[in-house]
Amino acid sequence: xxxxxxxxxxxxxxxxLAVLAxxxxxxxxxxxxxxxxxxxxxxxxxxxxxxxxxxxxxLKGRPAVINFWASWxxxxxxxHRILEWGAQEFGGQAQFLGVVxxxxxENAKQFLSExxxxxxxxxxxxxxxAVAYGVAGVPETYFIDAQGIIRGKxxxxxxxxxxxxxxxxxxxxxxxxxx
Length: 179
Known about the structure:
Number of helices: 5
Number of domains: 1
Largest sheet: 7 strands, mixed
Order of helices and strands: HEEEHEHEHEEH
Strand content: 15-25%
CATH superfamily: Glutaredoxin
CATH topology: Glutaredoxin
Number of strands: 7
Strand order of the largest sheet: 2-1-5-4-3-6-7
Helix content: 25-40%
CATH architecture: 3-Layer(aba) Sandwich
CATH class: Alpha Beta
């Protein structure tokens, strides 16, 4: 009887070690991205400044960069300057959109009055769009090609080089007049 308890304990420990070894072998912050290569979930949201309705359908035929952010998010503050630069630099190649995530309109408007808003900012009132896109936290930026397919996402604050690289990739996959 004693050897069965010892054997059970050893097997339990080995199983636990196997689970831990597998877990430590991966990045715990990296969440599998299941939407890559899929059609972007459709949405219609209200623009924060004008109240106009903006839908993903309106953007078809043009690549889109969709950034989920919040005023309470420290990394969003540093990233916003880069997105503003990107929208000014690459606005002719892709439509930039900001989506306010789990924040109040008042706080978002205050943030934008300080930081600038050269591209449309949309309010995701009940976080339905964020859930549809699988947003795990902010900031997260999604890259959608001209056909409405999600090509990738960037978790955390994006840097200018990564943003420019994504724009090049989206531009390369955009249809031309010859196609």
